[in-house]
Design brief:
This protein is about 40% helix and about 10% strand. By secondary structure, the protein is an alpha/beta fold.
């Protein structure tokens, strides 16, 4: 039997995102979420997780947006002059060039894991904002640090390249890395229909592909002023929410005979 994880990213980003993720979980479609330790609504997300214990919650490692969990002066190679993370392009350049210091990366990854623990979350797994852990250097650090904290599951990037972004991420993920082996689903999907396209059709294609376990990523959310300040990816979140709650998506899962699980079941 196919097993399906539907993971909602950006839990803890805003109250509107939290509300949408929990609504999708209570509707029976989202099974897992990843929480941003530095998100403006992270505390609220942790409280909602406690009220919905069947929702698997992992860490959405964030090194590209907002401010670090560590004091900015403690991780200067990871932040800009304003003390905030510098965005995806700069973060990638610093990782690749070595400008991002290894001990600062280790400290911030550890701090984000510890932040979730302080909020009462025992992370089921780890993924990352903007898929940064596909980068072999960061992936090696994640594979070294996470097992020390009992995190043995990680988003993988075994997927068909249906978009330029997906092709770049998949290529990065194939580059060699070190560290302990971590458990990942056999297939990853959802990136190709973010805020557009036919989600039900994408699910059907992905569930028909080889592999026993599929992770399907999503970003449901309600648009409000906080979300507009936090990210440019706004209106498509409400599109994703509508599609996730549609009968078409539920029918695609039912027709495939897929069992919905969280990362904790891997």
């Amino acid at each position: 039997m196919k097993r399906l994880i539907i993971n909602a990213d950006d839990f803890g980003l805003t109250g509107g995102v939290n509300r949408a993720i929990v609504e999708c979980y209570q509707h029976g479609v989202v099974t897992s979420a990843t929480l941003m330790a530095n998100g403006g609504a992270a505390v609220e997300a942790a409280l909602l997780a406690a009220d919905n214990p069947g929702l698997g919650v992992g860490l959405h490692l964030n090194l590209t947006a907002g401010v670090p969990v560590m004091p900015g002066e403690s991780v200067p190679s990871l932040v800009g002059s304003d003390g905030a993370f510098p965005g995806l392009k700069t973060a990638l350049w610093r990782l690749t060039s070595g400008k991002a210091r290894t001990h600062e990366l280790e400290d911030e990854i550890t701090a984000q894991i510890n932040r979730l623990t302080e909020l009462g979350i025992r992370p089921t797994h780890i993924d990352s904002h903007h898929h940064l852990h596909a980068h072999p250097r960061l992936r090696s650090l994640v594979r070294r640090i996470c097992p020390r904290h009992g995190i043995m599951r990680m988003r993988g990037f075994q997927m068909s390249a249906r978009s330029p972004k997906g092709a770049v991420i998949a290529l990065s993920a194939r580059m060699p890395s070190s560290g302990a082996r971590m458990i990942s689903p056999d297939k990853f999907s959802g990136i190709e229909v973010m805020g557009k396209g036919d989600m039900a059709a994408a699910l059907r294609r992905s569930l028909a592909a080889r592999g026993d376990v599929l992770e399907f990523m999503c970003h449901p959310g309600y648009v409000d002023e906080d979300l507009a300040k936090a990210t440019s990816y706004c209106d498509p979140r409400q599109t994703e929410l509508r599609l996730l709650l549609s009968e078409a998506v539920e029918a695609a899962i039912r027709e495939a005979g897929a069992q919905k699980i969280s990362f904790a079941a891997l």
